[in-house]
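Morning run. Coffee first, then this:
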Amino acid sequence: MTDSAIIERLQAAAGCPIVPGTLNVRLSEPATRGPNWRYLAAAEISPQWHQQIGQAGYFLIRALIADRYRGLAFQADEPGYPADQVELVAGIQLRPLLGLSDGDKISFSVVDWDDFR
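And here it is:
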């Protein structure tokens, strides 16, 4: 997630700064995408995004990460993407700031789009 086009679109969706890099999180069960999730189509990022990256788009929801960092949880719209995985992005590099290693647990909660300011 280092492409500037996707960073800009994610920042607009999040309503806060986003730095490059995702933290992949495995959930205890598949994510249930309800009406608070938004969809960002690949064509909204760039006309060639789907062809270049292989992802048709992203399902996004605003999140509060580790009870203090605003960001997004998202799932890619691509064949074989694990239903029990989300990727977290925020205005900070989550791994170094929180001292995380692969497999460590992290808390996050989803936040209603209208309440996220």
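The first strand starts at residue 23 and ends at 26. Good start to the day.
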